[in-house]
Amino acid sequence: MVVNPREEQLRTEAIVDEERPFDPDTASGQPLRQTNLWSDAWRRYIRNRGALVAGAILVFVILYCLIWPFISPYDPNGVDFSLKNQTPSLRHPLGTDAFGRDLLTRTALGGRISIGIGFAATIVILLIGIAYGAIAGFVGGRVDNGLMRFLDALYGLPYLPFAIITLAILGNASFWTMVIALSVASWFTTARIVRGQIITLKENDYVRAAKAVGARWYRVLGRHLLPNTLGVLIIAIFLELPGVILGEAFLSFIGLGISPPDSSWGQMAEEGRRVYRVVPHVIVIPSIAIATLVLTANFVADGLRDALDPRTRET
Amino acid sequence: MALLEVNDLRTHFFTREGVVQAVDGVSFSLERGKTLGIVGESGCGKSVTALSIMGLIPRPPARIVSGSVVFEGRDLTTLREHDLEDVRGNEIAMIFQDPMTCLNPTLRIGTQITETIRRHKGVSKAEARKRAVELLDEVQIPNAAGRLDDYPHRYSGGMRQRVMIAMALSCNPKLLIADEPTTALDVTVQAQVLDLLEQLRQEYGMAMIIITHDMGVVAEAADDIVVMYAGQVVEQASVLELFDHPEHPYTEALLGALPQIEGEGIREGRLTAIPGRPPDLIRPPTACRFGPRCPYADDEDRCTKENPELRELRPGHLVRSAHPTSERSRADTRMAVP
């Protein structure tokens, strides 16, 4: 007989509850076991092996980027031509680059910028997308129609050329200009998702009930509608993140993004491109870093979707 | 002056298929502390009438085309949304049909009650919380203080409706509109909720409009009854008068569809059903709207050409029919009863 693990778990929990002694204070209908959305979601998330491993790797990579530069014995900008283009060794686990800088330290530093730009741009994308989508969905009617047709027109714009043009207009490529360039043409999907959610949610009876007790519109939107889109938004973060990080890497790789002495993974790959026939690891390492980040973010998004959306629960 | 006066209210829905005349010329008034029952079958405009009073009709597609809703001397239909929000929940509160969906699943019960109190009364968080516990106690939720921090999914349907009642009462409204408050509940819970509602209504001295299709509910709770059909008032009288001397064939039929277990003149055999269904409100009949289903309808002009006016048959007893019971000949009656 196939035993469903979830069912078995429920059964065990039920038995435990039955064995509790009868207590008139709690017998008045007070709940015996408290559980909430997040602990529930966490339970479902950790049952997904792939997502769990991916999440662990993602956290590890982020911690490595944040902490390693502080512990590393090497100066990430310390040029030493006697050590240039070394292959991985015990002293330099990832080898050195053309200027003799330790790649383990450089990769952490580049990761800070890559991941930093990734998260910052994702947050900007979310803010614009939420504001735009929420207004369109909440107001509805002609406003909605106008805003969404405008969005359809923007949708036709290719993302990378748009980012390149923005960079050209803004001039130099610093952290924040990169964030703007990467978010300016990529918030469309988020706006659509939020609008769709708001339109579905605002038909709920509790929204009418909130209006019936005199709630102001910003209260209805901020308290009753947006919090209910949170699950979808968390997923959107991890869906946007890889795209943005790839975009940053691409721009830096073709020389439009972060420029030396600052580095990002894309810029490091570009430096590696010049020497890859001699020492391939200089391009391979940042490429692996980018691929890891993109892949794990996708897995995490997948796991979160299953964990946060009750409709996709497998059992 | 009456607390609420609804005059010739017309709420229409402007849809692709045409204009749905959901509420078409409804008038009634309600005194302080009294209870008005609005009855009629599904799709007769009962709920839209209530939502029009609250200013909660979905716009678009709906719009109040004409008429007025005068509450304490102010016409609510001309009020700005911003001012209307101060009235809602504070002076007029509403309870909806389905308590399962009327509470936000992501907010704690306590948050939802205190929000309403704080919105209108501007009291501190602690005070609002104290009041919320009192309210939950009043609506007989056991262990009120402990259950304030629960999420709605831990409450049963009956308990959620009690919470809705608590929220509605939280600001001492002068008028409570209950839109089919017991339809979604178990029969055993229905009676409890109705008793509670009536008890609290008296305690708070509120006026109440209770909307239902259950004649049994209004018989107990209401002082006056308005019977609606196809967006119009077809009969209006005090509860005793209406139950003792129903005049409109539709009211008669509604009462005939009700099981009777005791009393004089008890009917035996099967309950009667009303054949057919309410007319399409995009193209309502220009003649009597109940005509096609009326057992007494005849081919004379008064039934097939014009819609009869609402007329006062006896003091306080209005009826819209060419064949009120008291004016019917024996021949008609014999024809109608199978």
Concise description?
The complex is a heterodimer of chains A (315) and B (338). With 315 residues, chain A is mainly α.
Helix content of chain A: 55-70%
Helix vs. strand class of chain A: mainly alpha
Order of helices and strands of chain B: EEEHEEHEHHHHEHEHEEHHHEEH
Mean pLDDT of chain B: 81
Helix run count of chain B: 12
Rg calculated over all Cα atoms of chain B? 21 Å
Taking the sheet with the most strands of chain B, its summary is:
8 strands, mixed
C-alpha geometry of chain A: globular
The biggest sheet of chain A amounts to: none
Low-confidence stretches of chain B: 334-338
Helix share of residues of chain B? Answer: 25-40%
Number of strands of chain A: 0
- The CATH topology of chain A is MetI-like fold
Q: In CATH terms, what is the fold-level topology of the largest domain in chain B? A: Rossmann fold
Can you offer a commentary on this structure?
The complex is a heterodimer of chains A (315) and B (338). Chain A has 315 residues and is an all-alpha fold. Chain A has one domain: MetI-like (MetI-like fold), CATH 1.10.3720.10. Chain A has helices spanning 5-18, 37-47, 49-71, 103-139, 141-155, 159-170, 175-183, 188-201, 205-212, 217-225, 230-253, 265-275, 281-308. In chain A, helix 2 packs across helix 13 and helix 4 (103-139) runs antiparallel to helix 5. Mean pLDDT of chain A is 80; it is low at 14-19. Chain B folds into 2 domains: 4-228, Rossmann fold; 230-260 and 273-336, no CATH class. Chain B has helices at residues 46-54, 81-87, 109-121, 125-138, 144-147, 157-169, 187-204, 215-221, 239-244, 249-256, 301-304, 330-336; strands spanning 4-15, 18-30, 35-39, 62-71, 74-75, 92-95, 175-179, 207-212, 224-229, 232-238, 311-314, 317-319. In chain B, helix 4 (125-138) crosses helix 6 (157-169). Mean pLDDT of chain B is 81; it is low at 334-338. The chains are: A mainly alpha (315), B alpha/beta (338).
